[in-house]
Design goal:
Layout lengths: L2 H25 L12 H17 L5 H26 L5 H17 L3 H16 L1 H10 L2 H17 L16 H25 L5 H26 L4 H26 L2 H27 L17 H25 L1 H12 L3 H12 L5 H26 L4 H21 L1
Helix pairs in contact: 1-2, 1-4, 1-5, 2-4, 3-4, 4-5, 8-9, 8-12, 9-10, 9-15, 10-11, 10-14, 10-15, 10-16, 11-15, 11-16, 12-13, 12-14, 13-14, 13-15, 14-15, 15-16
């Protein structure tokens, strides 16, 4: 290692210490001088201390560097105890940040500069977003927390141990692949649900509809249609919300299909993209013409994950894959299109995932893409009818007409 390389590594260590120190110093900016345990200069020196020890012990056993870290930790712990006695502050975030800065300094001079830079940025971000993280935690209830644990259980614990081979007729039942698709759809639904929990479901129809569309666009349609029936004065903005949620279904389907079989994205981009534009265009017109109204909220949407829900979705997915194989053998491509239309009335995700999986196996990608588009068309028409029968009044045509145009657009592209 030449001098210029050494200088660069020490500079990275110093930058990491300064970055973390700036954040810690800003947090304690109102404290009197002498009452701050560590600030910008202290963290910069800690990083340099770590880099010095890392350089001196570069060719020595790692255990010796561990002893150096232990000695530094003792000093930091003593400082923390003094701070707790003198100020009554028992928080250890700054203490942990100091220990981590020492490690980053040592790691930098030993050549792990990319790791050090990345960890320094992530650490500073985590330290800086403390208020936001605490607000997010406060928004979670016990059921949400348990749902996170269940999600980790089915993905991190259960998924890796499932056999990755086909069973049954046509080898349609592959436990690993089916459960991986369950985890995938649960993860997408989770992202929408917890985004709503983070920003607050009552911050606007637009956010509620957008995030709700990631969870379940049909649930948004039902909820907003009921509110529109009881509050017809909000029909324009509620219609916009339904169209936003329904429009979100199309890019969601493109994404899910692309994750399973990337070539599907190109085949679905034009028909589903055009259908999405119609929905979003209608939503924009209603949104622009509506006055600022009270937010109808996100009631009716609940945590999308339960163990039984995951099991039912997995069973439904396996059944759809079996029926697609069976109907294809019996009726050819028409059998696939029939099951796609019927599946779209209940759940677009099952047909999207199953078609994409089969397209990566022995099903023509064009046939799979057409089936997914038909399912989306079926779902779009179904949600339009739901609004007609539930909301009625002025809201019904405001939703049904754009939905019908969107479906007709999809049909026209498929038939072309």
């Amino acid at each position: 290692m030449n001098d210029s390389d050494l200088f660069f590594r020490v500079a990275v260590a110093l930058a990491a210490g300064l970055l973390i120190g700036i954040e810690r110093g800003w947090q304690d900016r109102d404290a009197e001088s002498g009452r701050r345990v560590a600030g910008i200069r202290t963290f910069a020196l800690i990083a340099l201390l770590g880099s010095g020890w890392g350089l001196l012990l570069k060719d020595s056993p790692l255990l010796l560097l561990g002893f150096a870290f232990f000695g530094f930790a003792v000093v930091v712990a003593a400082s923390q105890v003094t701070k707790a006695i003198r100020l009554g502050d028992y928080g250890i975030t700054t203490t942990i940040a100091g220990l981590l800065t020492f490690v980053l300094g040592a790691a930098a001079v030993q050549g792990h500069v990319v790791f050090v830079a990345s960890v320094a940025v992530v650490t500073t971000t985590l330290l800086g977003v403390k208020p936001i993280l605490h607000q997010w935690v406060k928004r979670l209830d016990q059921n949400d927390l348990f749902a996170v644990f269940k999600m980790l259980l089915i993905s991190v614990v259960l998924l890796p141990v499932l056999p990755n081979q086909g069973y049954g007729p046509w080898g349609f039942f592959n436990p690993f692949e089916i459960w991986w698709m369950v985890v995938l759809i649960a993860g997408v639904s989770f992202s929408g649900y917890f985004a709503m929990k983070a920003v607050g479901a009552k911050r606007g129809v637009g956010l509620t509809a957008l995030f709700g569309g990631l969870v379940a666009s049909t649930a948004v349609t039902l909820n907003f249609s009921k509110i529109g029936r009881d509050s017809p004065e909000h029909s324009r903005i509620l219609a916009a919300g339904i169209l936003i949620a329904s429009g979100t279904m199309f890019p969601r389907s493109i994404l899910l299909a692309g994750v399973i079989h990337p070539p599907m994205m190109a085949l679905l981009a034009i028909p589903l993209g055009a259908m999405a534009l119609v929905c979003f265009g209608g939503a924009a017109l209603y949104w622009k013409s509506s006055e600022k109204e009270a937010d109808p909220g996100g009631e009716g949407l609940r945590n999308p994950f339960e163990i039984m829900t995951a099991l039912k979705f997995g069973a439904l997915l396996a059944l759809v894959m079996f029926l697609v194989r069976a109907l294809r053998d019996a009726f050819g491509d028409m059998g696939i299109y029939l099951i796609a239309v019927l599946s779209g009335l209940t759940d677009v995700d099952t047909i999207t995932l199953s078609m994409s999986r089969l397209a990566s196996d022995d099903l023509a990608a064009a046939v799979a893409a057409r089936a997914i588009v038909l399912a989306c068309i079926s779902s779009t028409l179904f949600k339009g009818l739901l609004t007609v029968f539930i909301a009625r009044g002025e809201m019904a045509p405001r939703v049904a007409v754009p939905m019908a145009i969107s479906a007709a657009t999809g049909i026209g592209i498929v038939m072309a």
